[in-house]
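Before we proceed, please read the two lines closing this message. Let me know whether the structure tokens fit the sequence:

…
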Amino acid sequence: MLIDRSKFSRRTVLAGTAAGTAVLATPSILRAQAQTLKIAVLLPRSGYLAQAGQSCHRGALVSAPVLADLGYKVEMVHIDIESNPDVARTQAERAINEGAHCIVGAFDSAGTLAIAQVCEQRQVPLIVNIAAAPQLTEQGYKFLVRNFPTGQMLVSGGLQQLKTLISATKVEPKTAVFLHANDTFGMAQRQGMDKLFPAANMPFKLVESIAYDPKAQDLSVEVTKMRSLNPDILLVVTRAADAIKLIRDVVRQKFQPMAILSPGSPGLYDEEFFKALGPLADYCAYALPWANPKSKSSQALEAAFKKMQPDFRFPIECFNVGFTFDALLTAADAFKRAGSTNGVELMKALKSTNLVDHAMIGPPITFDEKGQNNNIPAAVVQNRGRVPTVVLPADVATMTPVLPAPPWQGRT
């Protein structure tokens, strides 16, 4: 069952508050006997993170029939957090008041942290689909699990895969500049880079890290600074909108690095990026967890996606869709094993998760005592013909990587 409660009127809010009071007043045993798990899916479907939030939302919509086919009984309530942590906090409260047994979300680390505080107070599990800020699993939350790498895990795995990429293509870069957003996610990646790069034994020197405002009109100032440093490699942490601004300013200023690489961030593989830039989007590469084409869950998810979302491409959406599906699958599996919607019982089941078949590449989904899945490997994906294509590791690659990137001029 799907319910969309992206927008609340004053009357709805009051009704939801009254319903929440009734739920809280009901003995917990009655809630524990529910036959269906009610999941509130909180995502930034409007605001500056809307593109990614809507992609995750499509994943949630497609997940419903796949989970049903697998025998799981869930009801989803879809809520827009508007790319705003304050809205995320308020909507989490409302969702719980209206009977949500758990929450899945919320793509953005800042919004997810706001939701985590509410879930902790209300003893309602939060299953993080995408959010990399380390503090989510470092602040002692008891009602949270995360099947997504931390910022440092993304950077560490990303750097190792990029080292493999450089070795495989036999290029010899000497210098790199790291460009990152100054938001919660970008700063977490910067902290990870500062900590991990010195010990990563990369074959190039990191000459500078540059922060930018993702809400800026353009990145001309930052690109001018990078151009003056003339690095062989541009390492980036972006979202789709600012990645577009970055490439446009790089091309406009005739800056031609050997490669534009990301050690773990969105932006370079989004449909918005391809539509805006066409052939200029090609040959960017990124080291990220990716959907496993050989898993039964991923195959079922792709088939459902093609049927339900014909206007979108699964190879481009599979990162957001796959992680959202795996979060919902984790919640549904815990409910099935717990036989209860009680928050404490659900959390016990979540902490003992051991999901072998899931959408993303990697071993079974498990969580440590902090609620973190520490076993999420990265692949190297390169844009080829406007399609994100796995190029490493070799055993799952469908193409070989190309570096250095061809010149901007003359691409078709």
